[in-house]
Amino acid sequence: xxxxxxxxxxxxxxxxxxxxxxxxxxxxxxxxxxxxxxxxxxxxxxxxxxxxxxxxxxxxxxxxxxxxxxxxxxxxxxxxxxxxxxxxxxxxxxxxxxxxxxxxxxxxxxxxxxxxxxxxxxxxxxxxxxxxxxxxxxxxxxxxxxxxxxxxxxxxxxxxxxxxxxxxxxxxxxxxxxxxxxxxxxxxxxxxxxxxxxxxxxxxxxxxxxxxxxxxxxxxxxxxxxxxxx
Amino acid sequence: xxxxxxxxxxxxxxxxxxxxxxxxxxxxxxxxxxxxxxxxxxxxxxxxxxxxxxxxxxxxxxxxxxxxxxxxxxxxxxxxxxxxxxxxxxxxxxxxxxxxxxxxxxxxxxxxxxxxxxxxxxxxxxxxxxxxxxxxxxxxxxxxxxxxxxxxxxxxxxxxxxxxxxxxxxxxxxxxxxxxxxxxxxxxxxxxxxxxxxxxxxxxxxxxxxxxxxxxxxxxxxxxxxxxxx
DNA sequence: CATTCAATGTACGCTATCGGACAGTTCGCA
DNA sequence: TGCGAACTGTCCGATAGCGTACATTGAATG
Lengths: 230, 230
Hints:
- Two copies of one chain form a homodimer.
- By secondary structure, the first copy, chain A, is an alpha+beta fold.
- The first copy, chain A, contains nine helices and ten strands.
- In chain A, strand 9 and strand 10 form a beta hairpin.
- The A-B interface holds A 52, 54, 56-58, 60, 62, 64-65, 75-76, 78-81, 85-86, 116, 119-120, 122-123, 126-127, 129-134, 136-138, 172-173, 212-213, 217-218, 221, 225 and B 52, 54, 56-58, 60, 62, 64-65, 75-76, 78-81, 85-86, 116, 119-120, 122-123, 126-127, 129-134, 136-138, 172-173, 212-213, 217-218, 221, 225.
- The structure holds a DNA duplex.
């Protein structure tokens, strides 16, 4: 059980949930939560990365947030919602656990500690989304790409990530070739090592320098509020 | 008392708060909530518009969200936070009420109904922020400006809004003259009436057409979840 | 009523990014 | 082992929006 939220849940609450917890494989492109569909399960990844993507009616897509072992799919459930206008899908393959939304709701209803824990996660998530709004509005493609790589790396312990330029472009809402060029710049500066369909970070510090204020704020707040790094 | 959240609060909870509720004037540029400062009050505007702005270390500013009589300043308080990395300030002057953060926390702690109400507002707010991320990443200045005007107008019942191009540019993270030009286009098409420091919407339907999917989704969800228009 | 300053209109060259196309490369599968 | 599909590199003209500067207008104030 590698998901940080499940691990941080008070033992009594965890035990109450335990019977309903189900291990799941999360291959790349798995849709964890379809658009505007009533919540059935809440998924807690233990590894891999899930993207939350807004879809426009002319079928453009843009990432508004992401999570891995630090989060879960039911952010809006915690706020009293029953569905999400965004799609959640696995951007980097992984595995995790899931629980029926109703069961989690029941536990959270009764346990103040569980509620506070998950709401603090939702807080951290909200800051991340605000950070995405800022990035998209005020930073260049290169800066935004650096931010994205750092955020993903945070959730993967420096593992190599299986990602194509095409996917990255989708996430950032830019052309595929803009990503290609930016990655070349990073590789030229030995900040990353890129191979067909794979990226590994080599120099987080320099990437953070490039990302500037688009990276770091929400992450620091997460650490402060949840008491653990992402 | 025109704030929708205060009005929707169960009578018993409202009465518990009532002693601590204080009427406040909210002139333009009033800072309702300074950056990274522990919450002291939660402000419920009854009129006017508050902007939530992210500030970078090189002092660029960009709006991530806004609220008026539909919202309150303590979004993060409801999630267990004690401060916000964003600045809240009045973009259009108004008036409202405020309560000590502790008092609101105490009421929410004990009243499930109050908690659910305010969390549903936070949900709606989160969708708005995600909408800002989408707008900033995937829409043109004209589309984003149309969205902003509509969102503001929603909170002002068609009143004229006192706004300069400079302020609008700040909100959208674009040049002042880009706003000037876009407003001219709108005025030329008789969608708005602009005078020095003032804008009034004349044709919401056409503006919504221009804004496209950048406007409407979060607003519809708000209606569905809170049971009232914004 | 004159003055001053904020707000607005406009112009110009510049840059990032787009949209789209195409060729080369690598991978997995037949 | 060879083929086809997916991925990556590169290039082109087009364009939205930038940065900056300056002129004009209107409102408020002495």
